[in-house]
Amino acid sequence: MKLIAVSVYGEDKPGIVYGISEVLAENNVNIVDIEQTVLQGMFLMFIVGDVEKCKISLEELERKLKEKGEEIGVDVHVAPFERKKQRKKKLYQITIIGRDRVGIVRDVTKILYQHGINIEKTSLTARDQLISITFVVDVREADPEKVKKQLKEEIEKTGLDIVIQPYEIAKKQKRLIVFDMDSTLIENEIIDELAKAAGVEEEVKKLTEKAMSGEIDFETALRERVRLLKGLPVEVLEKIYSEIKLTEGAKELIQALKESGYKVALVSGGFTYFTERLKEELGLDYAFGNELEIKDGKLTGEIKGRIIDAEEKARIIKEIAEREGISEENVVAVGDGANDRIMIKNAGLGIAFNAKKVLKEIADGTISKENLIGLASVLGLSEKFFRKRIE
């Protein structure tokens, strides 16, 4: 097989692909590979053609292609092409999310280069000032897990968010997404708000911090915190719910997920009084939380039924997935603390959102508080939320 490379560049217009392919076909040149895109109104195409049975000389073929290019209004370049022996690649999809600034591509590609990672494909989308850059990369001889850990640490230092997925998994359409509630889907920590109303804010906050960082057992910490709330009137819960602030972009993101066919679940170590209300307000498919015991219009300081800790969260998600006929690799889990560690680790895509270090270490990626809507780009919902950047 004798190959040539044909590159075409110019202002986009109808008929470019047809014009070039017509010249090749008329002269018995078989196209064995082709890549074409339009960027900022400019047409780019690269063709690999087999000229083994070409009817004319390569010089004459090049002349005809250039003439066709002049006729259409594009530049055409022809060069010999040697197909290199392909080794098995270790492909990953890396998505970078952050607020727009000069030098993002330079900063990220420098880090990739320093790790010997080869970039196979790059695309950029934007939404207002939020930039999302997706790279398909070959990690080559590097240890993928080691590279993932190092990239997350180094990219974070640049003020950007990063999500890393094996390419084969990234290509598969996710079907179920599970959110934690406190400091994830909503900006509040509900139990801290309850504690403030009960006058035990400092005691509860210390227990919350220890539980979220994994220093103490979640169930023990939860029961101790709830006992401190004994006697709190149920009207306080209603007031707190009325003041809940959804994380920026959360409502919009969930709407897009639903329109794209996702099942959306809220699985929280928080309380059903709030998870059920959010389910109704946001149109979620599932909502789970811990049930506060209420008697005579006041909290008793006890929890009814099972405790939703890290293990229970993972079990609930498995139940939902089985009920919906969804495989584990098609599940996305988003959370912020130690109580989310198992669901994040087990999911096909685990996102540590505005999270503690203990969770970032096991997640596929990290997203900052202000960048939740960037998850739309990671999941391929770009058409609705991101536009191609035009400057």
TrEMBL record:
Transmembrane segments: none
Pfam families hit by this protein: ACT, ACT_6, Hydrolase
Example of a GO biological process term: L-serine biosynthetic process
Active-site residues annotated for this sequence: D180, D182
Highest taxon listed in the record's lineage: Archaea
Presence of keyword Transmembrane: no
SUPFAM superfamilies in alphabetical order: ACT-like, HAD-like
Required co-factors: Mg(2+)
Alphabetized GO MF terms: L-phosphoserine phosphatase activity; magnesium ion binding
Pathway given in the UniProt record: Amino-acid biosynthesis; L-serine biosynthesis; L-serine from 3-phospho-D-glycerate: step 3/3
CC per GO annotation: cytoplasm
Keywords, sorted A to Z: Amino-acid biosynthesis, Hydrolase, Magnesium, Metal-binding, Serine biosynthesis
EC number of the protein: 3.1.3.3
Domain ACT: 5-79, 93-165
PANTHER family registered for this protein in UniProt: PHOSPHOSERINE PHOSPHATASE (PTHR43344:SF2)
Family named by the database record: Belongs to the HAD-like hydrolase superfamily. SerB family.
Annotated protein name in UniProt: phosphoserine phosphatase
